[in-house]
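Hey, can you fold this one?
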Amino acid sequence: MRSARKQLAGFDGPLKPLPAILVLVAALAVALVPLARAADSPGETLKRQFEAAKAFLDAGDLLQAESHFRQTLALGLRQLGNLSISEGQYEQATRYLDDALKLKPDDVETQADAAIAWFRRGDLKKAKVLIKTALASQPNHARAHNILGRINLSQGDFEGAIKELKAAVALQDDFETAYFLGIAYLKAKKLAETSALFAKIQSSMGESAALHVLFGRAYTIAHFPEPAMAEFRRALKLDPKYPRAHGLLGYAYLEQFGEEAYPQAREEFEKELKRQPDQYYFLTLLGIATVALRDFPAAETALLHASRVRPEEASPYLYLGETYVETNRIKEAVEALEKYVSLVSHPEEMLREVSRGYYLLGQSLLRLGRGEEAKKALARSQQYREAKFKYDQEHIFEEKQSSEDDGESRASDRIAGLLEAGSPEEKQAAQAMIQRGLPAAPTVQQSAAETKETLQYRAFVADILASSYNDLGAMHAKDSKFADAAEFFKQAASWKSDLPGVDRNWGLASFRAKLYSDAIPPLERQLTAHPDDSFVRQLLGLCYFTADNYPRTAQVLRPFLENPPDDAGLLYAWGVALVRTRQSDLAARIFRRLLEQNANNPEIHLLLGQAYARQEDYPNALSELRTALHLDPQLLKAHYYAGLVLLHQSEFESAAQEFRAELELHPADPVTSYHLAFALLSQGRVEQAVTLLCEVVKARPDYEFAYFELGRALLQLGDVARAIENLETAKKLSPDHDATYYQLSQAYRRAGRVQEAEEALATYRKLIEGSRLKKRESLETEKP
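Sure. Predicted structure:
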């Protein structure tokens, strides 16, 4: 246990500030990898790993380069995760370490680090899964046994905690593990084992105030106040000014002797606060004790001080309220008690105190003549008193049931309330100790130096991570793995947003991966920084087009008007965007350019036909589509779009011919079959339409329009049951389609289901009215 003596040395007196870089080394040292040499700092280790990856990349060994880049990323993320743990930034730590595990999922040390981070963040379940995974692959991992033992201790599995912590001590005998083993023994009420263990620790480390305070804290955590008092007294004998020793001794007095100990406890709290006046916990306990001793001026001073230290905490205001009641300052009492009940965030955890608070508030409001408010407060007091009684009944064998009256505080209740007021902080401090280990208590100067060094180190790691992600992205892009490349570039940008070229790389990779929405933000940033980058401008225009953002498409491509590019897809997108934004003259100009370069290209005529159709210029749409078919009679979708144009012109027979022609080229296409069925229905050829629609819904079970038309057709044929079945399916697929409800109302009525018919009709009218209002609002807000 030699290392333990060094670990505890800081508790014996003021800590000497460590050089800042040594603080970082201590925080990060656990993250070293086999590449490291004995004298390496974490930064040097990370840099060496990165340089190895770059060397393999320069040599053209892409397999080794990728492996080493991934190791670099995992190492850097692990170092940052451990640094975040040391700073108490647990959410950030879990994010870093989870990312590191994605890169090295089987690394035991990273699993242990991640388990610590999740444990300290409060997710014991996830922490336990991680640490058990680590132990499954490395059963003799001392740190993993330590972590699992402390998780078990937090969960109340004391025998499990003892087992794991004993295993950890056997593998690596250090003070902190042995100390938590002592707490586990105490929680399991194994006093003899605890005494023997603490004696062994003391024999190894020698006596110090710090050691006895820690022993006392262990006894306090496990609710053994008598040995706790002995330890705190021993600590104070060795060092009368040791931090928190007097205060903890006062608390132990109260837990052991109850209200008889008020004078002794008060004396200890006052001694503690003379040394460190702003300790909220002991200020509150002093205030409560002096209220009980009826020294109201002293109580008011302590409680007001506590409320200034932590204005968001509730407890001081309850006892301030009582102080004001006892000194006949009723207005001030009401203000304090109203403040108290407004600040209590978890009343179920302190039912006795909340009941008292509302009772005192109700009585004070009565004295001010505010009867209605008083009645409400007293009712709340009764509610919490009954909840406390119910809780006591349910836990009668777990704790002694306290007597309750009309909310007034008896002596036995008061000490219980005092200990309850202190217990949340005690429990939090104990839980924090189990989760985070023993505090290192750095000085203010050291913390400031750490912050400066930490910022520098984070920037250093961020540069390496960004460069590694960027290189991996480039490697995957060259291998045409554009989705993977886009994700790597995205990660690179998250670590260093101003990395040269990263937005361009990210945008291009996303575009090539057809992740057009993802491509827009990096391309926007790239174009803002480099407005002359015409390639990025074209990509961004196409991305806007795929997102149906026609105004932005037209806007971003406008600089090309004087000299439009030759790319047919871009010209088509631009032309359509101009049509959609009612810039017909410019659209015609772009389409002419498109035709000049692609007069004999059937696909261009197909695209132009679609563009004219969107503009409701049906003659030109048909002209372009027929030209496309003349150039290539086998061109897919040309007959289909021609059929749609003819449908819009109510030329149902001609439309049906076009859809049949499309089906000859593309048999069993459910969308074309649906439109053919619609054309047949429009001609009154219902039975043929039903046959087609049955095939469509079989091929496309999510095709709402097909179910609707099938239901409508079946209703015309008098097959009411099947009509209802298909219309109800259409309703499930699209609950806001008003026409479905109208058809359902007709079908229900014909089936004799009058109530359902009325409900469907009412829903239809409601949807129609909603559509009408939306249309009106649209017309009213539309600019001429």
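The domain at 668-673+687-784 is CATH 1.25.40.10 (Serine Threonine Protein Phosphatase 5, Tetratricopeptide repeat). Let me know if you want another pass with a different chain boundary.
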